[in-house]
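User: Hey, quick favor. My workstation is busy. Could you predict this chain's structure for me?
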Amino acid sequence: MISRDLKLTSSASFRKPDVTKATQQDATATQQVPENYQKASFTKRHLFTLAGTFLLLLGGALTVYLLQPQFEQMNLGRMNTIGGMILLFVSGFLLLFRMGFLAYVGSLFFRYKPVDSVTDEELPACTVIVPAYNEGRQVYDTLVSLTNSLYPEEKLQLIAIDDGSKDDTWEWMKKAKELLGESVDIYQQPTNQGKRHALYRGFNLATGEVFVTVDSDSIVEKDTLRNLVSPFVINKDCGAVAGNVRVLNNQKAIIPRMLNVSFVFSFEFIRSAQSVLGSVLCTPGALAAYRSKAVMNCLSEWINQKFMGQPTDIGEDRAMTNMILKQGYHVLFQRNAYVLTNIPEKFSSLHKMFTRWERSNVRENLMMTKFAFKPFRNGSKLGTRLLLLNQWMHMLTAYPLFFIMIVLLVLHPVLFISSTLLSILIFSSLPAFFYAKKYNIAEAFWAYSYSIFYTFGLFWITPYAMATANRRGWLTRELPVKKQAA
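Assistant: No problem, here it is.
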């Protein structure tokens, strides 16, 4: 049930304020968007981390070379047992499957082309919805960046909803309203009900032909909205579009710096390939667009979704994507629709975010399986099913690989660690090369650091998420008790 609107009105009524002027008027200036990802600056800490990364990787490769007799002896020992033979066969099959799937994705990637922006006259009426919870001043920056978009003013509706924040988020939204006037309408939920409910309220208030959702810790470029919305004009079968997510806070902290390289590969390589099949599996919460008709067709099911008898309060983006795919629509990716978003800088917050994502993947892979192998849309469905099969392979092998890793780490620690480091050196070269070719060679080296970090620090996420898939909770964005009291 949507609560009574707590809509704030203002006498200000100008549109598209200049960010520079806003900066001059406000002591806490609007955060500037990093414009040039070609440049790379490194502190001593960054250089030390990268140097340590390559010392580890090269040390692992050297150790594998020096311990060849021990590797041969171990493999011969496996050949003499049934369990060892099964392990070698399964390992070989998984390697071939991964390599084959990667080659398939690569072939799709080279066929991908983003849709060029259509003219102002062709652009549809668009409603942008920004849910916010404990976001502080960042929501102000987000709203300003959206109003500076190169989108026809008369076709753009901007709605921001404070989901019962415990900090000063509402004050920053009111401040944005004072500056932006009729460009934005702001609302406040009486209590924190979750992002899904905030979006639900926004969808019901929206009047556009296309709904766009933007996270309140994100900054969009001026041409992002028009590029994001253009596929709906060109392709009548398009039901949703995923934006191209990059990391905003990647200047100092090491974790965001590593993830920025990972995001480029995940979006610009993987989602480009999925887009060719019309089956992007997840439209990210940071930036996504939906055909309003498609949303309204499944809105009741989406807001009332349950998993194992409990209301679902995570994975709203993946769930919406699934429900739109199920209707027979295509889901595409727009490489030229950039959004810069903040991500956790500390391990404690990062693993919670990854756990939430993986729990959502487990749930929605189960939901997708219910319709993906049925005639859910016209045309070829093989590619979509292969994408889902790859998701299932990731899930089904999580526990066996976790168990094998523990056993090898106990029985053959040196051989296991050295061979793992060599594998990281080899397989991380693909995302590193991809980033280097598109953006910056020096920054590309973070791909190797991230692989080590994930392999040895976050390997437990998928098994844990599968075992706890029924748990609720956003896990991040909660304020410390002292800050809440203040």
